[in-house]
Amino acid sequence: MLDLTSSLFLGLHHGSDELGGWATLTTGRAAALDEPDLARRVAARVAASQGAAAGVVHRSALHALVDVVDVLAPSAVVVDAHAYPLAGLAAGSAAARRGATVRTFAHHDVGDARRVLTATGARRPVLVTDGWCVGCNRPAPLAELERVVLAHGGTLVVDDTQAYGVLGHRSGHGGFGLDGGGTWRWSGGRPVSAVQVVSLAKGLGTPVAVTTGPRPLVEQLTTHGTRWHSSAPTSADLLAAERATAPRLRDELAGRRRRLWRVVQALRDGLRRLGLRVAGLPFPLVHVRAPSVDPVRLVHGLGALGIRGLALAPACRAAPTLTFALRADLTDGDVRTVLAALREVLAREVAA
Predict the structure, then answer these.
(1) Do 53 and 67 sit in the same domain of this protein?
(2) Are 57 and 231 in contact (CB under 8 A)?
(3) Beta strand pairing status for 307-308 and 310-312?
(4) Tell me, what CATH number does 313's domain have?
(5) Does 309 lie in the same domain as 222?
């Protein structure tokens, strides 16, 4: 089975023989009390890659987002209407714990964000968005959103999990960029005082989250909230994160991004030749619509031919899509196999 459902975009795996072993999987102590030096090293590397002053490790992006919103203590949280569900959960937690007002603004719409912020009349509001929307495959207008929320005395919080490790600073280079620093770097800027949350699970293959931003805020986060309720990530996860962020792996990861770009472009080009509309900008999650054909039927048809894809209903799209999750370890032959199988399934569906 050719599996195109995994979001290990760079195809990076961390075998036990590559991690060097560990004396104990977890300390059993709260991260706020004690965490390995490894965790602080990983957090510092991620912060540097994003142009942020400091970073701290969390068990997951949800842990991080809940803590960030809680520390900021806003009277209003304004969330992109089509953001990944974790953003809404963090906003809901703020509403439950602190009585914050929760509102949404139209997807990637700076003008509507300004209107909603003004309507709340809140001091120190928090604006929450994804860095990269994997539904429409477009970046959020991060710099513009930060200017708007700063004008209201607030803070922009960005969940950039989807893009971290994949997108990075382009500096005249094409493709996904050089350093994997995420959407803001890919867009050619850096935050003023925004907080960014990333999980390394997708781009770098290890389920460790890192929160980056201004040093005073990060220092508050080190002894706040969920870091009292959970230990640091496991030794295995931290060793994998250390390996994935180490300078010695930089060239390999850059090569993987180049290969991933070629795979994505090859599939997008082939899908267009089949007469299908491909959504958004190049990204490892490739969405297409086939006129008059249910994506679920396409997924079942491809499955019968040994190819596993996805039928998704992104919140920012009007209709469900046939989606392929691509990885750097796929080959040109894999792409040809997918396109040939899809051509066969489409012909059968149209004739039915």
Answers:
(1) yes
(2) no
(3) unpaired
(4) 3.90.1150.10
(5) no
CA distances from 177 to 151, 203, 228 (A): 31, 13, 37
Write the pLDDT tens digit of every residue in 239-287: 999 999 999 999 999 999 999 999 999 999 999 999 999 999 999 999 9
- CA proximity to 196, closest of 215, 214, 212, 219: 212
Alpha carbon 320 to its chain centroid, in Å, reads 21
Contact in structure between 35 and 222 (CB atoms under 8 Å): no
| pLDDT classification of 96: cutoffs 50, 70, 90 | confident
What's the pTM?
0.95
SS3 assignment for 284-348: CEEEEECCCCCHHHHHHHHHHCCEECEEECCCCCCCCEEEEECCCCCCHHHHHHHHHHHHHHHHH
Distances (CA, A) of 351 to 337, 338, 339, 344: 21, 20, 18, 11
Domain encompassing residue 323: 2-7+250-351
**Same domain flag for 239 and 256:** no
Q: Is the pLDDT of residue 352 over 70?
A: no
158 close to 140: Cβ distance less than 8 angstroms: yes
pLDDT band per the 50, 70, 90 thresholds, residue 173: low
Residues 208 and 241 in one domain: yes
**Buried/exposed code over 84-112 (b: 16+ C-beta within 10 A; e: otherwise):** bebbbebbbbbeeeeebbbbbbebbebeb
